[in-house]
Design a protein that fits this description.
By secondary structure, the chain is mainly α. The chain contains eight helices and two strands. It folds into two domains: 76 residues; 148 residues, Four Helix Bundle (Hemerythrin (Met), subunit A), CATH 1.20.120. A two-stranded antiparallel ribbon has the order 1-2.
Length: 225
């Protein structure tokens, strides 16, 4: 009996330490994710800032604002009540976010004038920036519930930032109509739509979000999806 008591005295504290260590794993993962996102998007914002200073294009300024908001909101975002840490969610998020960077400018004739393509991209970037401002501290790359947002552009559609991306991608393809670019953008946008569905599988567990979906019917494209 004494030996069993000694074993228990040794085992139970160790088990409690292991539980505490395991409970802290999500915090470590979240902190690491923040560091990676902030580093990547700070680098992108720096390059975009230099490009804007050289060209003076309004779209460059909007891109700078968009990526800077990612950095700012990642640093101050709310803790998530639930996070989808599945590999499916990670792959969709990764490709939808960084896949479009695989496109390349081409010298072949554009399908629309510069004014038209700049206008389409500009509209998309405005939507993206306003969507991120609407989302605020609930912003995050990985599907998660950081609080239901139903104000601003989210009062119109459930994923306005994704609609903005569709505009910017369309503008780029019209200006650079190569087969590779079309393939990359189509694949990235498909991943974006699947990501929206995946996000909602997490969010719909929240009663407030279920009520929100009843009021705001469309995910990304009004009347279509």
């Amino acid at each position: 009996m004494k030996s069993l008591a000694l074993v228990g005295a040794y085992t139970f504290p160790r088990a409690r330490r292991e539980v505490r260590a395991w409970a802290g794993a999500p915090v470590v993962a979240d902190t690491l994710a923040k560091v990676i996102v902030v580093a990547l998007f700070s680098s992108m914002a720096y390059r975009l800032g230099n490009d804007w200073l050289e060209t003076g294009h309004v779209t460059g300024l909007l891109l700078l604002a968009s990526e800077s908001l990612v950095v700012a909101f990642t640093l101050v975002r709310r803790s998530a009540s639930k996070v989808d840490r599945s590999w499916t969610a990670r792959l969709l998020t990764g490709f939808a976010t960084f896949g479009p960077n695989l496109v390349t400018p081409v010298a072949i004739g554009a399908l629309a004038s510069d004014e038209t393509t700049f206008g389409i991209c500009g509209i998309g970037l405005v939507i993206v920036v306003l969507g991120k401002l609407s989302l605020g501290r609930s912003f995050g790359l990985q599907p998660a519930n950081r609080g239901v947002v139903s104000t601003g552009l989210y009062n119109v559609i459930r994923h306005p930032i994704y609609l903005g991306y569709l505009f910017t991608h369309a503008g780029f393809v019209l200006a650079n109509p190569a087969g590779w670019n079309l393939f990359v953008i189509a694949a990235a946008d498909l991943a974006l739509m699947l990501r929206a569905v995946r996000e909602e599988k997490t969010l719909v567990e929240d009663e407030a979000y279920r009520a929100y979906t009843q009021r705001v019917r469309w995910r990304v494209i009004p009347g279509v999806f």
